[in-house]
Every structure is written in structure tokens, then in C-alpha cells.
Amino acid sequence: MRYPNGIQKEYRSITNYANRGMTLEEDLNVTNEYYRDRNIAIIYKKPTPITIYKVDYPSRKEAVIREARFKIPSTTDYNGIFKGKYIDFEAKETAHKTSFPLSNIHAHQIEHLRKIIQHGGIGFLIVRFTSFQETYLLTGKDFFNFIDQQTRKSIPYSYFKEVGKKIPIGLSPRLDYLKLIEVNYEIKE
Amino acid sequence: MRYPNGIQKEYRSITNYANRGMTLEEDLNVTNEYYRDRNIAIIYKKPTPITIYKVDYPSRKEAVIREARFKIPSTTDYNGIFKGKYIDFEAKETAHKTSFPLSNIHAHQIEHLRKIIQHGGIGFLIVRFTSFQETYLLTGKDFFNFIDQQTRKSIPYSYFKEVGKKIPIGLSPRLDYLKLIEVNYEIKE
């Protein structure tokens, strides 16, 4: 969506940043849009990876995909830059009340996050427990501390409560996770 | 494609890195795979952005996209991390012999690159002149120096020859653009 500058944009800011968010993905989209509009950070959700098998060209200017399938992603969904640092994270919702099942994240995505951290990037998870409408940021360090020392196939809700950082839902930005990144990581400009 | 570890993987490295590359995109894919396999950098091409209109579910486990359209990308195609630095670039081929038409890059992608550089990332272009089979890296600085001072709708081939950095085609890695990044940017580990 593109809007003209000025009042129209301001209007959009006031109404939409506050009201549009519903799912975690939507909340993150409006938050990242907020960050970009204010030049705080440049972070995007990556497009869903697909394999295209068939494309029709109904006219010279038009291409319509007629057969495609979803691919298992090799990377996390979100990445970008914040204060010169490479940012990379995966965001997931769960309806479970006692734990976050690790089956929600593909093995490749976990290994991707591990590598990002090895290379000096800031990698983390954002997990929403939809039953409680609570959203937590789990730093890469806390995430790997858990999965490297446990054989459990899920991370208990209590671990998020104790070790995770709860992200408050705000008006604008909707889900200010970068504030928690600033507090929990050493970020020098 | 997934391969078992060990000999099989080594075999793949020897054969495919050298022979698979043909288009610039393929050359970059095998190069980035090489960088990832050797833990030099974690850089991926983003999936092509599409809007999905219709999905069929022929079985419980299967989803087939039956109608989708290509979207204009808001960002560049490639990003990732190298020695702790955020890397972001666009790669294009042109069959033109005297210049690289700027119409090959969307305005949003150019503004995206500009912002990445403002935020402390390493942003650049890789352009291949297919008629000469020559591939150039144009640093963000050199790219914006040109487009901010010119009203031309293309960048002359001579500018790439004089100011761009030619990327040699190698056996493995196929297109070692990160070597040029190391030389042309101050990268401290």
C-alpha cells in the first residue's frame, strides 16, 4: 500500500498502527512499518517461499501463477538492520497454554538462527501465547541455552515468564520489540 | 536440495559449484551456498514476492496455489550477514552494450538501498553485461554519486569499467564478490 505524504499519512498512522494489528504477523508488520517510516530500523518480513510450476500469460503485460507449492523455509521470516546491527528473528503464535512446541520452528530455521549469532548478528524469537494474549521476546542466547541443555520438544510457558522479555502491546508502535533489543543487547551506534 | 554429510557433499562441491552457474542469479546462488557451507557469510536471495488469490487443498497435507500474481518488490533481492556487517544488494543482468538502464531497478529498491547505507549497512549493486560476460560490483557510494548527480536514465558501461569493481568468474567460489567487499569497505571483525 502506498499513501501520499502529509496529512493522509499522518491519518493512517493514527488510525492504523493502533487498530490494524490482530495476529502476531499483522502486529509485526505495522510495527516494522512504523520503524521504517520513522527511520528507526529497516526490517521486513521475507516473502513466503514457493516453487512455481506453471505461469499463464493472459496478456503481454500480465503473468498469472497457475500452479505453485509452498516450500519449507531455510531461513527465519524477518530480517533487517537496526543501528548498524544485523537483526534476524522468527515469530510464532501458539494456542498452547503450558508450553511452546518446538515443532513450530523448522530445524533449518533454528540452525540459521544459530549461525546468525555466530556471525555477530542479533538473532531471537518472538512467541505469542494467544490464550493469554502475551508476547515474549526470547534472546538467541536464552533460546539456545534451553534447547542445547534439554531434550524436551517444547519450551515451557514458565521459561518465557521467567527468562523471556514480555513485549507490551502499545498504540504506536504496536509491539515495540526493538526497545527490548536495545536493553538486552549491547548496541553502540 | 539436501545432501548427506561427508563424501557426497564434497562431491557436490567439486562438481556443482564449478558447472552449475549460468545466469547471474545461478552464479550468485552457488556462490552464496559456498559462503554458507564454509561459514564465511550467511547471505540468501529473498523469495519472489507474490500475492496469493486462490489455494486448493487436494489432500489434508497438500496445498497447491492455483492463482497468484507477482508483486513489485519493496526491497532488494539479496541480504544477509558477513563478518558482523549487514549486507544488502541487488543483482541485474543487461543485454545492453553501452549502458545499464536504471529502469531495471525499481524506485523502491533504490530508496531501500539508500536507507540501508544510512543505517550503517553495506549496500551495493552487482551488474552483469551479458554481451561481454562481465560482472561488476558498484558500491552504494559510487552508485549514489552517479544517480544523485545525473539526470540520465542509465549508467554508462564506461562508468562500470572506470569506477566499478570487476568480479572475476572463478571455479569455486564462482563469483567471489565478498572479496571485493572486504577490499573496498572497512570491515573489522
Task: Record the SSE blueprint.
2 copies of one chain form a homodimer.
Chain A: H1 7-19, H2 24-37, E1 41-45, E2 50-59, E3 62-70, E4 78-82, E5 85-94, E6 99-101, H3 107-118, E7 122-129, E8 134-139, H4 140-149, E9 154-156, H5 157-162, E10 165-166, H6 177-184
Parallel strand pairs in A: 5-7
Antiparallel strand pairs in A: 1-4, 2-3, 4-5, 6-9, 7-8, 8-10
Structure description:
- The structure is a homodimer of 189-residue chains.
- Chain A is globular.
- Chain A has a single domain, classed as Trna Endonuclease, Chain: A, domain 1, CATH 3.40.1350.
- Helix content of chain A is 33%, strand content 32%.
- Chain A is α+β, with helices and mostly antiparallel strands.
- Chain A starts with 6 loop residues before the first helix and ends in a 5-residue tail after the last helix.
- The interface between A and B is large, with 38 and 38 residues.
- Strand 3 of chain A pairs antiparallel with strand 3 of chain B.
Largest interface: A-B, 38 and 38 residues
- Assigned CATH architecture of chain A: 3-Layer(aba) Sandwich
Q: What's the gyration radius of chain A in Å?
A: 18 Å
Unreliable segments of chain A (pLDDT under 50, ≥5 consecutive)? Answer: 1-21
Task: Name the overall outline of chain A.
Answer: globular
Give the SSE order of chain A as H and E letters.
Answer: HHEEEEEEHEEHEHEH
State the CATH class of chain A: Alpha Beta
Q: Kindly estimate the percentage of residues of chain A that lie in beta strands according to DSSP.
A: 25-35%
CATH topology of chain A: Trna Endonuclease, Chain: A, domain 1
Q: Decide which structural class fits the backbone of chain A.
A: alpha+beta
Cα end-to-end separation of chain A: 31 Å
Count of alpha and pi helical runs of chain A: 6
